[in-house]
Specification:
By secondary structure, the protein is an alpha+beta fold. The chain has three helices and nine strands; from the N terminus they run αββαβββββββα. The protein has one domain. A nine-stranded antiparallel β-sheet has the order 3-4-5-6-7-1-2-8-9, covered by helices on one side.
């Protein structure tokens, strides 16, 4: 395992933070919507999550320790942000899982996304996101495709607590600290 990134590598931290802030509302929105469809709660324990955003970012693997209340905490933490940045979030059940269609605006970039979630929240699930983006910074592609594969790997490790997310390079943040990351988002 490589050593954690130095804090002086702010571009890496900003990129990871922005990626988490943009992805989290899509993953957590379902549990907080007034809609009768709710996001299933994951099995408590350690989940390994592989994210592949194609050519936009290098693939990365992270781990998240969760318990019965962690997913609800995530939805509660990000629901206000999702409501602020997303004008539409429609979630419905399908024969294979869930589909979420969203229209969001983050820091002047508009993104229309279609998310398909399939699998079993007790052992493994997959999230596929296709988005059409406009108005973003130079270098952000108009069409993006992201695949997230999550699998339950067992109980959380001895020093981990529920809500801990271990990022590539060993940086650990906790869901309760995510509100601090929210402050890094550019204001409208």
């Amino acid at each position: 395992m490589t050593a954690p990134p130095k804090l002086r590598n702010r571009n890496w931290l900003r990129r990871v933070g922005r990626g988490m802030l943009c992805a989290a509302p899509l993953m957590a929105a379902g549990a907080a919507l007034a809609d009768p469809v709710e996001m299933p709660t994951r099995k408590p324990g350690l989940w390994e999550i592989k994210v592949n955003a194609g050519s936009q970012m290098p693939a990365m693997t992270m781990q998240q320790c969760t318990d019965a209340s962690t997913d609800k905490d995530m939805a509660t933490a990000f629901s206000p942000m999702a409501k602020e940045v997303c004008s539409r979030q429609d979630m419905r059940k399908t024969a294979t899982g869930l589909v979420i269609d969203s229209a969001c605006n983050v820091a002047g970039m508009t993104s229309e996304s279609h998310t398909e979630i399939s699998g079993d929240f007790n052992s493994a699930y997959t999230v596929k996101v296709a988005a059409k983006n406009s108005g973003g910074p130079a270098g952000v592609p108009a069409d993006t495709s992201t695949m997230m594969e999550a699998k339950w790997v067992g109980p959380c490790k001895g020093t981990q607590k529920a809500g801990d997310i271990v990022m590539p390079g060993g940086l650990t943040i906790n869901i309760k600290d995510m509100q601090a990351l929210r402050a890094m988002m550019p204001k409208k």
